[in-house]
Amino acid sequence: MERLAPAKVNLGLSVLGRRPDGYHELHTVFAQVSVGDRVRLEPIPEGVEFKGKYGKRNLVYRAAVLYLEAAGWPGGVRIELEKELPEAAGLGGGSSDAAAVLLMLQELYPAEVDLFPLALSLGADVPFFLLGGVAEARGVGEALRPLKAPRVPVVLFYGGPRLPTPRVYAEVKPHDYREPLDVEAILAALAEGEPPYWNSLEGPAFRLRPELQEVKRRMRGLGLRGVLMSGSGSSFFGLASSLEEAQEAARALRPFGWARAGWLG
Ligand SMILES: C[C@@](CO)(OP(=O)(O)O)[C@H](O)COP(=O)(O)OP(=O)(O)OC[C@H]1O[C@@H](n2ccc(N)nc2=O)[C@H](O)[C@@H]1O
Ligand SMILES: Nc1ncnc2c1ncn2[C@@H]1O[C@H](COP(=O)(O)OP(=O)(O)O)[C@@H](O)[C@H]1O
Q1: For residue 142, how far is its CA from the centre of ligand 2 (angstroms)?
Q2: N or C: which end of the chain has fewer CB within 10 A?
Q3: What percent of the residues of the chain are helix, what percent strand, and what percent coil, each to the nearest 5?
Q4: pTM summary value
């Protein structure tokens, strides 16, 4: 059994404030992108087999163990993972891989198991990937509302450096807090124009790595709209008016790092 584990971008990410537990209250819009990793599962008599990077700490391994325990299933699974997405880039790569494993295991070994809490225990972005598409998220990212959005050509770019999520959040200052996003206005402007969104984590990321501002300038210079850092970075995305325009922009970005064109939503 095989499945695409799509990337996600945040069509806006507003940090509203800091919660008593130290996490930050978010308002964001997740959107899946047609570029991603590939996850393959094969049933085996028992146990979980995965030979890739991070071994037992890999999110695909952890997702399989969680599901099989929750389902109380004696069967096992061999997992193969073909990575296409850069890691810790804000594209939800590992989170998407984990969700793909949960969804495939539910087909392979059906059981009355609610995948949502299992997903949430693996990371804030994992529940979104159980739904896919486009969804508004509040809280830490767990309160999801599916949205209808047009499919739009998009360019993803990652030139490094690795920016660990905890480090970016640690850099957030009170002056980075903003009001909630205007979700309807964002969806209305996706097909053309500049969506009225922002990513509150750009300020902290640019303070940590000022050179990232050059990435944004370069992508805008290629004519892309709504250029924004995704999640806690350091990947960026931009919207195009046709797939050809997106492919041309991705080609122009390739000498600077990892670049892909695909469909949003
Ligand atoms: C930023 C987002 C946007 O979707 O993810 P990415 O898209 O970049 O992966 C999420 O908020 C990533 O949430 P999550 O997956 O839980 O973060 P982790 O990588 O586990 O990092 C955990 C650390 O980040 C900080 N953190 C995380 C989420 C949040 N809402 N507030 C926080 O302050 C906390 O210090 C926490 O200890
Ligand atoms: N299958 C996986 N793919 C990518 N990263 C993984 C995976 N399993 C565990 N990890 C760890 O999880 C971290 C975050 O993964 P990822 O979801 O790619 O980040 P982001 O959501 O920022 O794109 C990585 O730094 C890596 O150490």
Answers
A1: 18
A2: N
A3: 35, 30, 35
A4: 0.96
- What is the ipTM score, two decimals? 0.95
Strand partners, 33: 7, 264
pLDDT tens digit string along 180-191?
999 999 999 999
Closest residue by CA, ligand 2 atom 9: 58
Annotated ligand binding at 244? The verdict is no
Closest ligand 1 atom to residue 140 Cα is 30
Structure tokens that stand for 28 in this block: 């964001």
Contact by Cβ (8 Å): 242, 153: yes
**Distance in angstroms (rounded) separating the CA atoms of residues 126 and 137:** 12
CA angle 169, 160, 92 (to 5 degrees): 60
Mutate to test the pocket of ligand 2, among 33, 37, 62, 87 (most ligand atoms within 8 A of CB): 87
What's the token pair of residue 114? Answer: 């609610």
**Contact present, 130 and 115 (Cβ < 8 Å):** yes
Span 119-134, pLDDT tens digits: 999 999 999 999 999 9
Do 200 and 231 meet the contact criterion of CB atoms below 8 Å apart?
Answer: no
Among 260, 247, 23, smallest CA distance to 140 is for 23
Q: 86 in ligand 1 pocket by Cβ < 6 Å?
A: no
Place of tokens 């206005």: 185
Q: Are 75 and 68 in contact (CB under 8 A)?
A: yes
Asked whether residue 92 is marked as a ligand-binding residue, the answer is yes
93 lines ligand 2 (CB under 6 A): yes
